[in-house]
């Protein structure tokens, strides 16, 4: 058995809109229910985590896990601009208190993709006023709940808008496929449904009526982002971080980034370098005062002379279509550590699959890479698997299964999977030596 340090955090993660249900004041609720929606189905009651959080956290505890990452829903806390709902703030206080009472370290994300509907109507994530709004929200949360918040991630996957912008350029023909053996980067680590550009345009036209603004001004967090929008996101992070530290300097504050393991074939080195800059190194100047970095990884991308190489039909893939490559996480940690000396927290890593034995193997292989990084002196302080529950995967609905716990949504009954017990066992007894099939790591 290979043990992590006693203080190493192992647990799982969720996002409020994906699990709580009935988030009626959010932009995502509006987008799910608009005519011609791009969503395969609405979130509705989700998996009712809002009311069943004690049951879910208890399952995490019984498995042996020590941490839980979840998000506070801005649209619940501030359903109308400037009006903070005391009842909803009290709800999240109860969740935090339950974690502390049961020796579970809470890691809270202030913004995990979904936003108040009113924010989008006022210009959303391309409006400079959003910086002030986000700062006020962060200040409210930490003023009311700060003593219960050891870790805060201000914004989840702050680089996601840039990645989505690349996909939109591909769809509109700005990026050309250069050969039958290569393709432009069309993958993001989030559930999006982008079948045709025409459908998206019709969808955004319908959204203009919902939000009361012109369609081109509908800027949700997952809209393709301009350079101005990129700056606004980072200003939101900096202002929120500074506000949090002013109220309670003991809170550890960071941000999370979506990072692929970029690997180069001969001639692909420049493509890798550009992707790594876009995904990570360009953001470093804004993170200098942060206490930790949240790393989120699900797979790798292989680059040739003409860009990202399309996997062949023999490549093992997950239900989301990512290459099944758990070793990507360790590689990403090593890359990040070359530019970042402060603590690294794995805030998301996981797999969508209908076969739980694949999930157990994925966790084993991914954590083997993490353990090797820790042994080599890299400052990794924890790992939260995505996700605790099978949940609402944004535009893809409920067909993706990332969870350690299955849910029958007709009854909301929980069914813990063997992978949950396996993850908890690592926390209590250590990481088992690699099995024979794991030792045969896939290469380039």
UniProtKB/TrEMBL annotation:
Record's keyword annotation contains Phosphoprotein: no
Enzyme class at the top of the EC tree: hydrolase
UniProt GO molecular function: beta-glucosidase activity
Gene Ontology annotations of biological process type: carbohydrate catabolic process
InterPro entries in UniProt: GH, Glyco_hydro_1, Glyco_hydro_1_AS
Active-site residue list: 348
Pfam families noted in UniProt: Glyco_hydro_1
Keywords annotated in UniProt: Glycosidase, Hydrolase
Keyword Disulfide bond applies: no
E.C. numbers: 3.2.1.21
One CC-aspect GO term: cytosol
Family: Belongs to the glycosyl hydrolase 1 family.
Protein's UniProt name: beta-glucosidase
Origin species: Sinobaca qinghaiensis
């Amino acid at each position: 058995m290979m043990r992590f340090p006693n203080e190493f955090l192992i647990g799982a993660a969720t996002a409020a809109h994906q699990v709580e249900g009935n988030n009626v004041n959010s932009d995502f609720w509006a987008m799910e229910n608009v005519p011609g929606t791009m969503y395969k189905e609405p979130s509705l009651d989700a998996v009712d985590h809002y009311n069943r959080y004690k049951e879910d956290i208890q399952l995490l505890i019984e498995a042996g896990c020590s941490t839980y990452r979840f998000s506070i829903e801005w649209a619940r806390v501030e359903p109308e601009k400037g009006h903070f709902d005391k009842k909803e703030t009290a709800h999240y206080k109860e969740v935090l208190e339950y974690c502390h009472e049961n020796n579970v370290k809470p890691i809270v994300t202030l913004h995990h993709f979904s936003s108040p509907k009113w924010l989008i109507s006022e210009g959303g994530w391309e409006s400079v006023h959003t910086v002030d709004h986000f700062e006020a929200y962060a200040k409210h949360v930490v003023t009311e709940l700060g003593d219960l918040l050891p870790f805060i991630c201000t914004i989840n996957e702050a680089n996601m808008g840039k990645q989505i912008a690349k996909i939109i350029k591909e769809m509109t023909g700005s990026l050309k496929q250069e050969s039958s053996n290569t393709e432009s980067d069309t993958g993001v680590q989030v559930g999006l449904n982008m079948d045709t550009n025409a459908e998206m345009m019709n969808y955004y036209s319908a959204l203009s009526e919902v939000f009361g603004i012109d369609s081109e001004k509908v800027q949700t967090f997952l809209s393709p982002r301009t350079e101005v929008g990129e700056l606004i996101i980072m200003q939101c992070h900096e202002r929120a971080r500074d506000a949090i530290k002013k109220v309670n300097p003991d809170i550890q504050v960071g941000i999370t980034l979506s990072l692929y393991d970029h690997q180069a074939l001969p001639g692909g080195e420049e493509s890798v370098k550009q992707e790594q800059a876009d995904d990570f190194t360009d953001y470093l100047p804004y993170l200098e005062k942060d206490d930790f970095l949240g790393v989120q990884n699900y797979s790798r991308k292989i680059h040739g002379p003409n860009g990202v190489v399309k996997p062949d039909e023999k490549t093992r893939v997950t239900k989301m279509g990512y290459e099944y490559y758990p070793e990507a996480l360790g590689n990403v940690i090593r890359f990040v550590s070359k530019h970042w000396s402060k603590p690294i927290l794995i805030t998301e890593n996981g797999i969508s699959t209908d076969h739980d034995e694949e999930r157990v193997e994925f966790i084993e292989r991914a954590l083997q890479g993490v353990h090797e990084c820790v042994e080599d002196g890299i400052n990794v302080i924890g790992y939260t698997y995505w996700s605790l529950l099978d949940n609402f995967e944004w535009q893809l609905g409920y067909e993706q299964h990332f969870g350690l716990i299955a849910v029958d949504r007709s009854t909301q009954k929980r069914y813990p999977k063997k992978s949950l017990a396996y993850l908890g066992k690592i926390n209590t007894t250590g990481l088992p030596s690699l099995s024979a099939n794991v030792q045969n790591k896939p290469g380039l």
